[in-house]
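tl;dr need the bound structure. longer version: we got a ligand (4AD) that a collaborator sent over and nobodys looked at where it sits. i said id run it. heres the input, straight from their email, havent touched it
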Amino acid sequence: MMDQTYVEDLSGMIGEDVVLKGWLYNSRSSGKLVFLQLRDGTGIVQCVVFKGNVDDDTFEQAKSLGQESSLIVRGKVKEDARSPIGVEIDVTGVDIVQAAADYPITPKEHGTEFLMDHRHLWIRSKKQHAVLRVRHTVIKATRDYFDDNGFILADTPIFTPAACEGTTTLFEVDYFEDNKAYLTQSGQLYNEATAAAFGKSYAFGPTFRAEKSKTRRHLTEFWMVEPEVAYAHLEDMMDLGEGLILAIVSRVLEERKEELETLERDVSKLESIASPFPRIHYDEAVNMLRKGHEDGELENLFEWGGDFGAPDETYLSQQFGKPVFVHHFPAAIKAFYFERDRERPELALGVDLLAPEGYGEIIGGGERATDIEFLEKQIEEHGLPKESFEWYLDLRRFGSVPHAGFGMGIERCTAWMCGIEHIRETIPFPRMLYRLRP
Ligand code: 4AD
Ligand code: MG
């Protein structure tokens, strides 16, 4: 292994000589001392250079080193009660790997556009770094949850011949000799095939929506985890989704304490997330929204049949202070593939999970239609090209069974965990309506 110690391991190494490799986060000097804040990706540690302990050249270099210069520090780990990690480094040597000057992101306030333009550097900053570490844990907890519950990971294609979630948000790409392909909006249709092969499967990858909406909840490229289960029904998806969210919340609380502190997250809000999550019928949600309007808490009067806007979702989740499932949406506002309610065929067996604190819909899914004639009609009514769905219809020709699934947006979930305003900070390099760089 490399001769290198990571900052995250230092607290257990008091008195030892170590080699740290990283970058200069910040520094200051005072007389015979230089204080270098060294970051190495796992944490930040203060390295104290005392003039008498290193040669003059090294001392002068350390004193004038620019922010984000890369450097290797040798020294002894010393207990320090004032340090957030309980230790600092008594420096015996410094090698400068590259001396950087005029790093564009300084401790002063920068505008979001400026920071987004410098996203490749911004991700080194404490807060961004914390958010992306929480994202990592959200993803790890998600994978573990499905892996530990008998699911097979079966990833689905990104180039697809047709729409899954409506034709208005498709990104079209040229695909050899006058063929068109679309970037996938969801792996669901393929998940239905893998679920029929494996029983329980999930896909986890980037998905794309040409959303012209410039909201704090929309990206044009986002990561979605999508489980699909054969012989499962609507209720089962609520159980599965609830289990997933509980697994994520507890893992984030357990493993990302420090990051949540950096983000000044009110963790009591996450600690209070517990089973059972309320499950309300769309009709009931509509009644609540209408009451919200009567009480003057919602500006618009919600009409039955409509889709929830952001204020509606926020209002609904506020009534519970917990994630809340809303199920049985009007079929008219849903995709073509939903199974219908037997008693009320105008309702789709769809379910959304609304996160608390105004984070809105983080899970969307439901039960899939099993009947081939019904689906053929749906495909036609939705103006979808039937020939592109023949393979999908095969799933109804050969061993059609009740089945259900859902999709959870990783970025929306991460934004909620972190308590941050905008989901653009929850992915290393966000893609949005007006952002394709860096
Ligand atoms: O509700 P959606 O559109 O559902 C589907 O795509 C289903 N086919 C999934 C399935 O059943 N397998 O999207 C699912 C989730 C949303 O709840 C949200 O968390 C996220 O994906 N999402 C977005 N996240 C960021 N930016 C966007 N533009 C998003 N659109 C959806
Ligand atoms: Mg949805």
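gonna send this back to them w/ a short note. The domain at 119-426 is CATH 3.30.930.10 (BirA Bifunctional Protein; domain 2).
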